[in-house]
Write a structure and sequence with these properties.
Strand content: 15-25%
Number of helices: 10
Bound molecules: guanine
Structural class: alpha/beta
CATH architecture of the largest domain: 3-Layer(aba) Sandwich
Radius of gyration: 19 Å
Strand order of the largest sheet: 1-11-8-7-5-6
Helix content: 40-55%
Number of strands: 11
Order of helices and strands: EHEHEHEHHHEHEHEEEEHEH
Number of domains: 2
């Protein structure tokens, strides 16, 4: 019998704690915690993500400053805005929604965000600190996965973890977090030979592939813990993950659903990082 990891419930519990921390910050420092959100262009998925991030800020009492820039904004204009936000004491976190239009250099933009305000944990310095297992702001989705495992009292120490996907945003930081928590980590990707053998050998599978129902029941060993980071549409346009949930679930000890699994944790960790950034700036 598998146990469903209820990301929505874990996120709700954390958001209550975050709301209290925001109230305490205001009482102690006499000012709001602020998050700047920058969206360039009109990518529909990005518009939804940004809207949800701003709504979540409001729910916990974080003040959001939103900037909607046209797709043809110049690098100099965007750089100028980020530099202003970097210097603004009312702004504790800066989030630039990715991907940016092709003519803009995302690495350059990220490099202008002070490490202390990089609430996405995407900057080279925060990624480097994560590799060194030092205090840092950690990318929201993988950090959310770790929180879910913690809340379920799943000890990853010594377990074989297979991360499928090697993106800078999810796969790489996910692998590093699991390694820092003493798991034995394998990172698989599109060029991996015999992915199925790796998966069958895993105690924990984290799927971050971006392909609907890519992980099938024959790839999952009995009793595995399966974490599904994917947000896709199936052949009927219905929201689904990277895991063929209906067929995989019976083999698992734990599994996350889509929707209601990792998704709600991602924005929660953004709120968490913003509070962390504000508290550190005030100390
Ligand atoms: N694009 C996809 N996921 C993310 C995220 O977590 N943060 C930002 N800034 N952009 C994204």
């Amino acid at each position: 019998m598998y146990k469903l990891i209820d990301g929505k419930a874990i996120a709700a519990e954390m958001r209550d704690e975050i709301k209290n921390a925001v109230t305490q910050f205001r009482a102690r420092h006499g000012k709001d915690i602020g998050l700047a959100v920058v969206l360039v262009g009109e990518n529909p998925a990005s518009q939804v993500y940004v809207r949800n991030k701003i709504k979540a800020c409001k729910e916990v009492g974080i003040k959001s400053f939103s900037y909607y820039l046209p797709a043809n904004v110049t690098q100099a204009q965007l750089d100028g805005l980020i530099s202003e936000l970097a210097a603004d004491n009312a702004v504790h976190g800066i989030l630039v929604q990715l991907p940016l239009p092709d003519h803009l250099d995302a690495d350059r933009v990220l490099s202008l965000i002070p490490v202390s305000k990089d609430v996405d944990g995407f900057s080279a310095e925060n990624i480097g600190k994560l590799c060194l297992n030092e205090h840092c702001l950690v990318a929201c989705t993988p950090n959310g996965v770790m929180k879910m495992l913690e809340k379920e009292n799943i000890d990853v120490r010594g377990k074989k973890a297979v991360v499928i996907g090697r993106s800078d945003i999810v796969g790489k930081p996910m692998a590093m977090l699991l390694l820092n928590a003493d798991a034995t980590v394998t990172v698989c990707h599109s060029k991996t030979r015999d992915l199925k053998a790796h998966c069958l050998d895993a105690d924990i599978i984290v799927a971050a592939v971006g392909r609907p129902k890519f992980i099938t029941a024959d790839m999952v060993g009995e009793g595995a813990i399966v974490i599904d980071v994917g947000i896709n549409r199936d052949e009927n346009g219905k929201l689904c993950g990277d895991v063929d949930f209906e067929n995989v679930k019976e083999k698992c000890s734990y599994i996350t659903p889509v929707p209601g699994g990792v998704g709600p944790m991602t924005i929660t960790m953004l709120l968490f990082n913003t509070v962390t950034a504000a508290e550190r700036s005030a100390d």
